[in-house]
Amino acid sequence: MPHFAPDIYTTPQVGKLLADEARVLAPLLSRCTGDHGLHLTTSAPAEPPAIPLLGHWATVRVAGKALGGDVIASGLEPLPFVDEAFGVVLLRHALETTSRQDNLLDEAIRVLAPGGMLAITGIHPVGLWSPWVARQSRGPRPRLTWPWWWSQRLVRDEFDLSVPRRVGSAWPRTGGTATGESLVGGGYLLVARKKRPAAVPLRPRAAVVPSPIPGTLASGARRNARETL
Predict the structure, then answer these.
(1) Cβ atoms within 10 A of the Cβ of 52, count?
(2) Helices and strands per DSSP (H, E), number in the chain
(3) What radius of gyration do the chain's Cα atoms show?
(4) Which of 5, 38, 21 is nearest to 137 (CA)?
(5) Are 204 and 219 in contact (CB under 8 A)?
(6) Which run of H or of E encompasses 121?
(7) How far apart are CA 82 and CA 110, in angstroms?
(8) Where is the Methyltransferase type domain (predicted)?
(9) Is residue 169 within 8 Å of 185, Cβ to Cβ?
């Protein structure tokens, strides 16, 4: 009798995929700096990648209309962080489990500092993983999306993009050697950098310098001449 998981993100198959993603993510994000990073993830007990130059991670778990983890809030409201608060934002399968995909991406862009890195991972809708997800899911089914869709969104929002990568094994499995990038990998990974505002040079303004009073006589001589008259 087949075993159906109430949450596919807690299965060993997805756990293996998350480990494969972390193997590829770590070197791509190794130069990220800042005091804090934001880890938007699912219910999976996965740790964010270790980044030497980054201070701390805040982890927020996304599940439909609710947010959990380090922050307990409603997923229908803006993220409870100020603008440009994070040097890196990692959306780790979070866009698959939120009830408002575009809003969550907009919020991730808002809290990302200029020059910061945004990384998106997910299960690719084309391949052997997609029917496995449909068959295993009991409850809200993940919304699998194409990576090129998010690429177009980020280009429109003025991000510098790297080429999307396929990662992990071609089919859901629990064992075997660690897998990095693969042309037929079941997951995808997209990394982009938020552009800094363009520096506009200021135009120099001409300073008005008063011209000296014309004439050959000193001011004292002029005063004496008036007194004589």
Answers:
(1) 9
(2) 6, 9
(3) 29
(4) 5
(5) no
(6) strand 112-123
(7) 8
(8) 70-120
(9) yes
pLDDT in tens, 166-224: 999 999 988 777 788 888 999 999 999 999 876 655 666 666 666 655 555 555 555 45
Residue that has been written with the tokens 């990384």 in this structure: 119
Query: Which structural domains are found in the chain, ordered by start?
Result: 8-198 (3.40.50.150)
DSSP per-residue codes, 163-196: PPEEES-SS--S-SS---B-TT-SEEEEEEEEPP
E strand or H helix that includes residue 21:
helix 12-28
> What pTM was estimated for this model as a whole?
0.82
Output the six-digit token pair for 141.
């089914």
Q: Give the burial class of 73: count Cβ atoms within 10 A of its Cβ; 0-12 exposed, 13-18 middle, 19 or more buried.
A: middle
Residue 8: φ, ψ to 5°: -65, -20
Is residue 81 helix, strand or coil? coil
